[in-house]
Amino acid sequence: xxxxxxxxxxxxxxxxxxxxxxxxxxxxxxxxxxxxxxxxxxxxxxxxxxxxxxxxxxxxxxxxxxxxxxxxxxxxxxxxxxxxxxxxxxxxxxxxxxxxxxxxxxxxxxxxxxxxxxxxxxxxxxxxxxxx
Length: 132
Description:
Radius of gyration: 15 Å
Helix content: 25-40%
Shape: globular
Distance between the termini: 33 Å
Structural class: alpha+beta
Order of helices and strands: HHEEEEHEE
Strand order of the largest sheet: 1-2-3-4
Number of strands: 6
Largest sheet: 4 strands, antiparallel
Strand content: 15-25%
Number of helices: 3
């Protein structure tokens, strides 16, 4: 058994469905209402820069981060695992396995990613015109 935590697959599936089904204008003014609909609690806002929010499913101690570009929400970042040691082979295998599993599940629910960044710290992004 691994000592590291990741988001529960069922919880992640529900999060993806909620994100897919939530249409909003991606404006900073919509953040409180949209966060509430998603079950998130806005903890703090930083004028013209972003906001941080908490949700019941958060793994570890990092909140959801929303980055602003003027009056628009440009990016949202959510950790799906707890922070693990960088130079630990078992930890890297854990991260690779979680990434592959969640990437597959996300593709099943949202379709193929709109952007990918391969490498030792891979990223995948899903961005739609009205929902992500």
